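We were asked to recover a plausible sequence for a given structure. The inputs and outputs are reproduced exactly as logged, with field labels preserved.

PROBLEM: sequence recovery
POSITIONS: 131
GIVEN STRUCTURE:
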């Protein structure tokens, strides 16, 4: 199970470095991002490496810089919940701070699904964990 936390750490590090190659490599071929709960841009579900790459390019065309700071990791057998704060600066210099929680579902060290939740309690519930 510790392998899953390390996989999520590497995923987050690749994102923060803007390393598309290693970020994509952290997903299984059929991996998906469920961003349907977003209150901002990019609301939707992105599937497969082509969809994930589309999400990446849309996100990074909106923001000049992004730093995701994880606030711990809670895990089950196949899921890792990551409460986080994103520090973002838009292309026009506008700075945004957003709190959310991610639920990573992993198989063999690869992310099969990444879900974004606005509230940590929702993420914990989705992973069948309690606060």
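RECOVERED SEQUENCE:
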């Amino acid at each position: 199970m510790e392998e899953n936390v390390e996989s999520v750490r590497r995923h987050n590090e690749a994102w923060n470095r803007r390393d598309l190659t290693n970020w994509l490599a952290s997903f299984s071929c059929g991996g998906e991002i469920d961003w349907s709960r977003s209150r901002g841009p990019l609301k939707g579900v992105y599937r497969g490496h082509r969809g994930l790459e589309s999400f990446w390019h849309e996100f990074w065309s909106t923001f000049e810089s992004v730093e995701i700071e994880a606030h711990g990791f809670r895990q089950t057998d196949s899921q890792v919940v990551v409460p986080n704060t994103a520090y973002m600066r838009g292309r026009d210099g506008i700075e945004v701070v957003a709190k959310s929680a991610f639920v990573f579902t992993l198989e063999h060290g690869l992310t099969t699904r990444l879900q974004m939740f606005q509230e940590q309690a929702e993420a914990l519930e989705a992973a069948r964990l309690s606060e």
